[in-house]
Q: What sequence folds into this?
C-alpha cells in the first residue's frame, strides 16, 4: 500500500482572484473553472474547491446555480431538468476548460464529466483516467488526506 499527497485549494466567495506567477496549480484551476462557469452560465459560483490526488482532479463549484435554477430544483422533476441541463452544457462546452487544465497541469485530460446537486447548488466536475470516482460533500471541513490501496490499472 502506498500513500499519495493531496493538493487542495478552496477559493471563498470573498477572495479576490490575483494574477501572479506564484499561484498554485489548484488555485489556477479554481480560477479557470470560475471563469468557465461565469462565461457559460452568466452566474459565478460562490466558492470553488479543487482537489488533486494522483491522476484525479475534482473541481467543486459551490452555489453555482442561478436563483431561477434553485427555484426550479425544488421539485424532483425540476431538479432532474437542472441536472440534465448542466450535464449537457458541460459536455458541449467543456473543451476550453479541458484545454486550460491541460495547459496548467501539463497533462492531457482523459475523461471529464459534471454532476449537479440541485438542492445545494453545487456543480462537481470530475476528471479521471477512466476509474470510478465517488464525491461526497460533507457538512463541514475535515483534515486533508489521501490513501491509495495500491497499484492502479
A:
Amino acid at each position: 500500500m502506498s500513500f499519495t499527497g493531496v493538493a487542495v485549494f478552496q477559493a471563498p466567495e470573498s477572495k479576490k482572484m490575483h494574477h501572479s506567477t506564484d499561484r498554485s496549480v489548484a488555485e489556477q484551476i479554481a480560477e479557470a473553472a470560475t471563469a468557465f462557469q461565469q462565461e457559460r452560465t452568466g452566474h459565478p459560483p460562490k466558492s470553488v474547491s479543487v482537489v488533486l490526488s494522483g491522476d484525479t482532479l475534482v473541481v467543486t463549484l459551490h452555489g453555482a446555480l442561478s436563483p431561477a435554477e434553485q427555484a426550479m430544483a425544488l421539485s424532483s422533476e425540476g431538479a432532474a431538468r437542472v441536472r440534465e441541463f448542466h450535464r449537457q452544457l458541460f459536455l458541449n462546452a467543456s473543451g476550453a476548460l479541458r484545454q486550460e487544465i491541460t495547459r496548467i497541469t501539463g497533462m492531457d485530460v482523459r475523461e471529464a464529466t459534471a454532476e449537479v446537486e440541485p438542492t445545494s447548488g453545487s456543480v462537481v466536475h470530475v476528471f479521471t483516467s477512466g476509474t470510478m470516482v465517488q464525491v461526497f460533500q460533507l457538512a463541514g471541513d475535515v483534515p486533508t488526506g489521501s490513501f491509495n490501496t495500491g497499484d492502479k490499472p
Remarks:
- Residues 7-12+23-127 form one domain.
- The helical segments are 25-41, 67-72, 76-93, 95-105.
- The longest helix spans residues 76-93.
- The CA atoms of residues 36 and 104 lie 14 Å apart.
